[in-house]
Design goal:
Length: 174
């Protein structure tokens, strides 16, 4: 009996066991490296990018809601917002309906910076996934977004920052 494996059987073997986690970790590491490099001029890199994107595209009523939406500790979010505000990308404004509440609003400069950052992130993602055909890249993005949505729906307090930090504690070997 031959022990030679065809590409199809090799692919099946790679999909079993711990290789799925390793594969996700490798993609996430490369994504993080490329995106952080692309967003080097943005306060706090990818974290600042995510905050700015939510502020621009979603209606979050206050900083607590923003922290919950992004699953970021409120004290960490305060520093993120401070940095984005100092860069002129967002403003804290009193809510006209409740003066105790501060709403976060993107500035015109913040919207322009986000548009450029989105292009840079898209290019970085294409670089990371360049080994896949375009249809597979799109399918992968859709599947990962659906999985993340399902995780958040079932465990809303999952902190993605801690999950990402855990991946980066391990050295990368090529």
């Amino acid at each position: 009996m031959s022990t030679h494996r065809t590409p199809a059987t090799s692919r099946l073997r790679r999909r079993r066991g711990v290789n799925f986690g390793w594969s996700l970790g490798m993609v996430l590491r490369r994504w993080h490296e490329h995106v952080e490099e692309a967003l080097a001029g943005l306060p706090q890199g990818s974290r600042g990018y995510h905050v700015l994107a939510v502020v621009v595209y979603e209606d979050v009523p206050n900083q607590n809601a923003l922290a919950s939406r992004l699953v970021i500790d409120r004290s960490v979010l305060t520093y993120l917002i401070d940095d984005l505000e100092a860069a002129g990308l967002v403003e804290r404004r009193l809510d006209p309906n409740d003066r105790r509440v501060r709403r976060l609003v993107a500035t015109e400069r913040g919207r322009k910076v986000l548009a450029v950052a989105e292009e840079q992130v898209a290019l970085a993602e294409e670089q990371v996934l360049r080994g896949l055909p375009a249809a597979q890249r799109a399918a992968l993005r859709d599947a990962v977004e659906q999985a993340a949505d399902a995780i958040i729906a079932s465990a809303p307090m999952t902190d993605p920052c801690l999950a990402v930090d855990g991946v980066f504690e391990q050295p990368v070997t090529d």
